[in-house]
Amino acid sequence: MMLIQPERQLIEAVFGVPVTNRYGCEEVSLIACECDVHNGLHLNAEHAYVELLRDDGSPCAPAEDSSIVVTELVNRAMPMIRYDVGDRGAPSNRTCACGRVLPLMEGVTGRLADFLVAAGGSKVAGVSLIECTLTRFAGIRQLQLVQE
Ligand SMILES: [Zn+2]
Q1: How far apart are the CA of 138 and the centre of ligand 1, in A?
Q2: Cα 38 to averaged position of ligand 1 atoms, centre (Å)
Q3: CA pair distance 34, 19, nearest whole angstrom
Q4: How far is the CA of 4 from the centre of ligand 1 (A)?
Q5: Which of 76, 98, 102, 104 is most exposed, with the fewest beta carbons within 10 Å of its own?
Q6: What is the tens place of the pLDDT at every residue in 17-71?
Q7: Ligand 1 centroid to residue 95 C-alpha, Å
Q8: Band of residue 146 on the pLDDT scale cut at 50, 70, 90
Q9: CA of 33 to the centre of ligand 1 (A)
């Protein structure tokens, strides 16, 4: 799970060091990681081929919300091929100021199962809902969203 900005700020304030987001999963390990510029996640392209796809399987545009699909390049025992991780993210066409040439993704927007569905059928990422709305109310220490 990616850190939301208030969590990052709290950890950095308490420990006095910058915090770096890393993204991965049990099945594939590290998929992407921030560099010291903290402006998107560099894909771990040396170890995995990452596709960011629309629901119909076509490649999505930069900054478009998409499914994260990963093919391992180094697991010779049981490689995951075009594995849909179940997470959502957005690709980037930017280059990073750090000088690394590994491709960037804008970020991980949430888990497929974590989306709330509005009455009109549109989807809202639970993490986005928390980050953009509920954390702005003072005094909330924990919360849980339930959609039946
Ligand atoms: Zn960078």
Answers
A1: 34
A2: 7
A3: 9
A4: 19
A5: 76
A6: 999 999 998 888 899 999 999 999 999 999 999 999 999 999 999 999 999 999 9
A7: 8
A8: confident
A9: 9
Catalogue all structural domains in the chain, each as residue range(s) with its CATH number.
Answer: 20-110 (2.30.38)
Q: Rounded to the nearest whole angstrom, what is the distance from the C-alpha of residue 46 to the centroid of ligand 1? A: 15
For the entire predicted model, the pTM comes to 0.78
CA of 67 to the centre of ligand 1 (A): 22
Please give the Cα distance from 70 to 47 (Å, whole number).
Answer: 10
CA distance 59 to 36: 28
Is the Cβ–Cβ distance between 71 and 48 less than 8 Å? yes
* Sign (positive or negative) of CA dihedral 58, 114, 11, 5: positive
Under the phi-then-psi rule, with left for phi > 0, alpha for psi from -120 to 50, and beta for the rest, what region is 143? Answer: beta
Q: What separation in Å is there between the alpha carbon of 21 and the centre of ligand 1?
A: 12
Structure tokens at 131: 């980050």
Checking if the pLDDT of 100 tops 80, the result is yes
pLDDT at 31: 96
* Residue 116 CA from chain centroid, whole number: 17
How high is the pLDDT of residue 26?
A: 86
CA distance 72 to 32: 13
